[in-house]
Amino acid sequence: MDAQLKRGVLDVCVLTAIKNEDSYGYKIIKDLKPILELSESTLYTILKRLEDAKMLEVRVVLHENRVRKYYHITNTGLARIEDFKNEWKELMEIYSFIVKESN
Question: What's the CATH architecture for 3-102?
Fold first, then answer.
């Protein structure tokens, strides 16, 4: 898979994982595990990129004497999910054309 496409898909997967409730790194990895393997280093790179793009906001909480970062999706992040859905429809139309022409 193209690196840019994969990056976009991973970004939207992370956004979707926290769409309904704020979450933290370990829980995001756990929630995404049924659909994809994501290392901590990859996840935190994605979270930082999404934060820089204003798609996420971060809140720091002390939990069991440890600092835990909770991530909250912004309206920009929600819009990115919707844009991705529309882009994916276009991509599926192209895929259908390619498959049809290959037969």
Answer: Orthogonal Bundle (1.10)
